[in-house]
Amino acid sequence: MSDLAAARRRYVEAIAQRERISSARLLRAFATVPREHFAGDGPWRIRREAGHGYSSTADVDPVHLYDDLLVAIDERRRLDTGLPSLWAHFFDVLDIKAKERVVQIGCGLGYYSAILSRIVGAQGSVLAIDCDKALASRAAANLRRYKNVDVIHGDGCSGVGGPADVIIVHAGFDHPHPLWVESLRRNGRLLLPLTKRGRAGTVIKITRLARCYQAEAVRRIRIFPGKGRGKTALDERVTDWWERATALAPLRFQGIEQGLPSERKPRRP
């Protein structure tokens, strides 16, 4: 077996350098959560960000997981764990703090749920939701040691368990769901990939301000489509509208109606 501790150090250093992350709390979370506990049995099927095909790790040594790569959850559907540097960047953009309540929609096998657990600390909490019953069950088993994490089976569109400081969506949708926006506390943040049928799109961040919401583009992404994502030409046009509007400048609005910003005053969670 190779030096796993050294591999983990290099892994975190590479993430920090690639995305220019300085948050000690965030980097410590990536350093202390064992990725192998959330990857299933090896050898693992992996692929690089720019690559199109999967390959198998040489053996079951977990050192192979401590690299900036995607690990297959379901290769047939091209459903992966998510690129570590990319999600580290998103968590950094959200500026997640100790004691905050985070809702994660699309938790997969729970790796990033565990990292979020470490970031918010014992006085914070994470609600991890997945629409795939089998994945939710596996994530719950993987996260047994993380006492501030609850895992439920659901699509995240019918309930998020109450007001949240941060909501993170790990799948592509065509527009922000009103529930997610209205569930944000004051200064709460929503991170959402807006994608089209080809999985490509733009991640936006929505912040609840004192009297309105503000949406801004973060970066481009390719990601697995969320359950309930629209597939019509109208849905595609709604996604286009959000991408173009947030690319120009931060967009302020009062609420969401029919997928688009409205002047309707938001509810207070």
Keywords:
single chain; 269 residues; alpha/beta; eight-stranded mixed β-sheet; 7 helices; 14 strands
What does this entry look like structurally?
This protein is globular. Strand 10 (200-208) and strand 11 (213-222) form a beta hairpin. An 8-stranded mixed sheet has the order 7-6-5-8-9-10-11-12, sandwiched between helices. The protein starts with a helix and ends in a 7-residue tail after the last strand. The chain has helices spanning 4-19, 24-32, 84-94, 111-120, 133-142, 178-182, 233-248, and strands at 45-47, 55-56, 70-74, 79-80, 101-105, 125-130, 149-153, 164-169, 184-195, 200-208, 213-222, 251-253, 255-257, 260-262. The chain is 29% helix and 28% strand. The protein has 7 helices and 14 strands. The mean pLDDT is 93. The protein is α/β, with parallel strands linked by helices and 269 residues long.
Give the arrangement of secondary structure elements.
Layout: H1 4-19, H2 24-32, E1 45-47, E2 55-56, E3 70-74, E4 79-80, H3 84-94, E5 101-105, H4 111-120, E6 125-130, H5 133-142, E7 149-153, E8 164-169, H6 178-182, E9 184-195, E10 200-208, E11 213-222, H7 233-248, E12 251-253, E13 255-257, E14 260-262
Parallel strand pairs: 5-6, 5-8, 6-7, 8-9
Antiparallel strand pairs: 1-2, 1-3, 3-4, 9-10, 10-11, 11-12, 13-14
